[in-house]
Predict the structure.
Amino acid sequence: MTSIHDFATWEPLLRLLRAHAGDGARAGVPSGRVGGRIGRYGWSLPLHRPMPRLGRAVQVEDMQDEFDAVERVREALPGDEEVSFAAEFGPDGRAVVHVLGSSPAVESGMGARPGALVLVEGAVPAPWRRLPEPVAEGVRPAPSADPELVEGTLRERLPEAIGATEEEIAETEARLGVALPEELKALYRVTRARWEDLGDDYAAAQRHAEAVRCELFSLDGLYVSDVSARQCLWQFGAREAAATAPDAAVQYLVGSPGWIVFADNGGGDRIAIDLTPGPRGHLGQVIMLSHEEDLGAALIADSVTDFLLDRPSALSDGLGVNDLRSVAHVNTGSLPSVEAAVHPALEVLSIGVWEGEPLSLAPVVGLPRLRTLTAYPGTLADPLEITKLTGLEYLELGPREWRVLLDARAVPRGLSAAGIEVHGDADPLSVVELANEILALWDRPLISRTVVEGTLDPAR
């Protein structure tokens, strides 16, 4: 076993990086440094992979040198940790690796660049703090909800199934801290959905899934899909808004104590009973939580009865986030100005690629709910206008804009997290140094740096 701080650990990778970057300064990068990140489950490296031969996909052997070099670094990693680094090369064969340590205050980023800086320990983006609104008066189970029909239908489809006992159902309710809807209890009285009841028979499992129209979990597998079930990095979560439209059937949330997951659709999406529906929804409606989405759920049936009988809901999900103007994107392909984003409900302002003159933030000063600002480098006319946005909890800017705030001692102290937006081949070490300056303002753990040096034989 080699150490992550041994030059021998990095030597094969350094040879590959030097071959792609060339000796000396890399074009467009004054520092001549190249950076990357390697972890147990993937890596990000500035390597140009070979094109496969015509008519053939890329094979492992086409990238064997890269695989071998990465594996050598992986073997030196403790546990499931990942490592980021910056490397530089001299014309005489000298190579220097700056091994960048992890920090509990820094989320995973791309390449050697740090992810979001968590300035307040344990802080999460606003949508992850949002609880469901109380169920509107008059919201009831759908007229189609029929526990007896559920039980009768399933007994016809699964005549040999073993059902759960009343005691098992009661134990599940006690574990979850919520009473299960009568339809769901009727379903489990017919089948307890245990793998051992199927005799480890995949064909029988397929027939069971077809009968219940999903991959049904056993009672032990039921869980509440609250916000803890959907983790998200700050740089993505802060850009979201959990805003529910007045005509919504499903509340637009990260999670809810009323979302009881009971099945999977076979593709990784979870199926749940909704006990906290939106204003136009029904108690006990069936919703789907996509594994590709961080917020929201799709309405798929007004009741378990409708779900089993393949009767989709006629209601619209009614998410309506854009209609509520909670999130605004100002860029060359979206809103044409900051003024166009102004709305009392605005929570998130993202300024992207912009071809005109730099923009002023004056139009959004004073908006009561604005909590997130992200701006591509060079898009702000005066970064110090940020000091007038007193409700920010997440701020993401380019290095120059951060430099203006730091030099003026004007970094908003109400922030919970921050991000550094970098384009192109910026020096990774300068970004890390900037991140550490920001972390130090909150006395948060810094990103450490260890220098590993050695010589690469030019002939090899």
Q: What stands out?
A: Residues 7-21 form the longest helix (15 residues).
